[in-house]
Amino acid sequence: MVGVLEVGVVPFNLDGWGPPDSTNTDSAGNTNTDNLPLNVPFAPFSRSDKLGRVADWTRNFNNTRPKNPSDSVFDFSNDESFPAFAEDDSSFHLVDGKPPPKPRFGPKWRFQQQRQLPQRHDEEVEARKREAEKERSRRDRLYHMNRSNANAQRREPSVLKSSVDIQPEWNMLDQIPFSTFSKLSFSVPEPEDLLLCGALEFYDRSYDRITPKNERRLERFKNRNFFKVTTTDDPVIRRLANEDKATVFATDVILSTLMCASRSVYSWDIVVQRVGNKLFFDKRDSSQLDLLSVHETSQEPLPDAKEDINSAYSLSIEAAYINQNFSQQVLIRDGNKVTFDEPNPFANEGEEVASVGYRYRRWKLDNDMYLVARCEVQSVVEVNKQRSFLTLNALNEFDPKYSGLDWRRKLETQRGAVLATELKNNANKLAKWTSQALLAGSDLMKLGYVSRVHPRDHFNHVILAVVGYKPREFAAQINLNTSNMWGIVKSIVDLCMKLNEGKYVLVKDPSKPQVRIYEVPPDAFENDFAEEPLPEEEQVQPPMEDVDGGEVNAATNDVEDKEVDAQV
């Protein structure tokens, strides 16, 4: 038997569409009369449905929201008894797009991050990448502004070359990394003076009052001779070696190079000669040890072209020239001198020499080993009838764009910042000067600040300031440990004393922080000659700009002002 599906009676409304106005019929066909609101047509009551609207193909679909509520077929906006569906689009929002209220105080940029909308994970990653890129760009911009011209392109660091040509027949015996030097320590007793030679002039204290506002022109001393004699060519050291006064012999320049080896960047070399039971540390005739490095430890590379006035080689010659003339200008040249036991051992009779005193001092390394070194002092000062030795050195400014500080503006107000910048850019040079002052037993070391008259004129200079420091206090300030210095020397001496008789060379690797020991033939470096700078007549002098912006040729200056002492 098949069941019959009964369908309820559906009333038929003759007056319109939908159920009758005043009746309500249930599913069983019963008609109920309720108090229903009048004139309310059928409409869905779910706000998510759109069945309350009839499609109007004449509307403009570029704007889904009607400008006028009457655009829809059914307009219920005026009927208070039924919700207005024409405005339903305005109630749908994924997030709150309204801007937050403005802060009552403080700059606007402090609240920018609070106004950002929530982001998806991938958008957050991209945002972090953009912020990191902005931070890198900011650091690069500050780097350029502090180091050099902001509009100049960053130069790649130049490839450093070895100070000596390594020959294929040389035998490398050992290589010592600088990391091992920092762990060394050795204490030596107070040295004794074996002999004092030369003569010293008194220091002119008026130079302590120099400021950039009353600068002084750097003079040239062409008639005074400077001597840079190596260890084995020193007649006094030869005499002391014959008298068996010590086992190891060197100069203060060579010892300071070893003591501050871990701070060096440029390559250098020292010749070691083992003769019998004695050890001699020498420098080659064409060695760069007598020149002064400039911006050696700086992060800003110098030009590679050797003929450039700001190249490392040109600046080293200029710095040595400045240092020599400065050490003679700050003296009282009235004829009064302090003479020692013997005259200058390198000068001929009647020859005018620079003010310098040689102190041959001896240190005890162990019970059977002594070290003798020739140390230099440049001046003397007398206070309360007590004489004190001075060492004189000069820092030179060649272009403020490289250091980021203009000495003429900062020396009076920010002298500490200027010194800190020099300690960063010339850490090795300042450490070597300090160690030389400690070796010579100087009571005071004077540092002069010398700058070019014009950044493009490397022939004329001015003294901007002179500052004095006690060597031990300055060594503590630059973190120079004397025990570590002597520990390096003692370890190298012990290593070289184990070698056989012959000639060796210590070479600082140009690209790695390490030193290598090579065994060389006995006649090595015999034909080397010092590389002299070109005469000034053959040097090309760059034009310099005057104050008004025009060009002034440096060759139009006085002939005497143009000449540079080529003896370094």
Number of separate helices: 11
List segments where confidence is low: pLDDT < 50 over at least 5 consecutive residues: 69-77, 79-87, 105-119, 147-157, 529-568
Tertiary shape: elongated
Radius of gyration: 44 Å
Spatial gap, N to C terminus: 130 Å
What share of residues is helical?
Answer: 10-25%
Into which percentage range does the β-strand content fall? Answer: 15-25%
The topology string of helices and strands comes to EEHEEEHEHEEHEEEEEHHHHEEHHEEEEH
Q: Summarize model confidence as the mean pLDDT.
A: 78
**Major sheet strand order:** 3-17-16-7-8-6-11-10-4-9
Largest sheet: 10 strands, mixed
Structural class: alpha+beta
Count up the domains.
Answer: 3
Number of strands: 19
List its traits.
19 strands; 5-stranded mixed β-sheet; 3 domains; 11 helices; alpha+beta; 21% strand; 568 residues
